[in-house]
């Protein structure tokens, strides 16, 4: 009931135009960095390992890690419950009710104009472990988070590939545990899960679809024409060769789950995980990422685009400020990339970059 009530009011606010009172101002694009621009910095604290989503005129930034040195946490990477929203028209940030739990690597989805958090990692016993209670839906009318059913342990993880299909959310792969000491556990999974927002229940898809061809975390995801794409990412980063970085594109037709996952021909030019991504039409843009052996920062600066129709990749204008460990959200052909890490592992930034592919060449 509560869910329906929120939906109706959100729909009404949208209809009467509360979310778009001002026409967007034109952007000043630098001729030296075609396609790229910066907008208003993230307030309060730079952020990484956060998640992000578009809802109702705003880009939401949820959870993640901040640089807050505490006596028992000398490295300073503190998990946060902070949530903020950036209004696309006014270019201003506002505070949103905090998540009930501090999480990083959260799985976010928007279904029926509502924001869902469907798992993530929280600090447990000194390490980052999948939190099966971290499942919430946001009601923008009351600015509150409501608990959803706990996530069954086999479906609980952070850093999954997530897409929304009708009233269901599909999650593929992810990370069950990331220990914060050298030689600790880094537990990548290949599990595929389905969360039904109408019944608040979790399920396995049919057997053919229930496992990725190989485990993935810190991976890109897109849903285009009912096909779920899972691009790049990594597996077992602390033990596999090359940090487990991968260049694959896996695809699953959500209207034909029995057909199972397939491996596409197109291979990402630069295998990497921790990338930001967003689909603009039938092009999946991927940005940055972690594990670059060529530079001291360990961060990739590449912008690489997967064209679904031709099953091939192309390379576009590099990121002016290379980042890893943040999500992107797409609205009206622009890709919004708030924050991220400017250094491998930990180095959060408050810079908020926007990429507009139409100002660059495909
Ligand atoms: C955005 O800001 C960062 C940090 O100052 C800078 O490195 C980058 O070049 C800027 N991007 C553009 C498009 O000016
Ligand atoms: C989740 O909630 C249950 C019931 O309150 C509790 O026993 C469990 O410790 C919680 N799990 C985490 C990771 O906080
Ligand atoms: C990843 O780790 C799992 C569990 O230890 C193992 O079964 C799998 O072979 C590993 N895969 C790679 C590519 O390292
Ligand atoms: C991007 O990174 C590569 C190293 O991975 C470097 O050679 C290149 O100069 C960088 N490009 C820009 C525009 O900074
Ligand atoms: C964290 O903040 C401290 C204190 O301001 C600063 O010295 C340190 O460089 C910051 N660390 C990172 C990774 O940004």
CATH topology: Neuraminidase
Heteromolecules bound: 2-acetamido-2-deoxy-beta-D-glucopyranose
Q: What number is the mean pLDDT?
A: 91
Helical stretch tally = 1
Distance between the termini: 45 Å
Supply Rg: 19 Å
Which CATH architecture? 6 Propeller
- Order of helical and strand elements: HEEEEEEEEEEEEEEEEEEEEEEEEEEEE
- Biggest pleated sheet: 6 strands, antiparallel
Total strand segments:
28
Brief characterization of the structure:
This protein is mainly beta and 362 residues long. It contains 1 helix and 28 strands. This is PLD phosphodiesterase domain-containing protein.
Structural notes for this entry:
- The chain has 362 residues and is mainly beta.
- The protein has one domain: 6 Propeller (Neuraminidase).
- It is 4% helix and 37% strand.
- Strands 10, 11, 14, 15, 16 and 17 form a 6-stranded antiparallel β-sheet that branches.
- β20 and β21 form a beta hairpin.
- It is globular.
- Bound molecules: 2-acetamido-2-deoxy-beta-D-glucopyranose (NAG) (5 copies).
- The site of one 2-acetamido-2-deoxy-beta-D-glucopyranose has 3 residues, from loops.
- The site of one 2-acetamido-2-deoxy-beta-D-glucopyranose (NAG) has 8 residues, from β1.
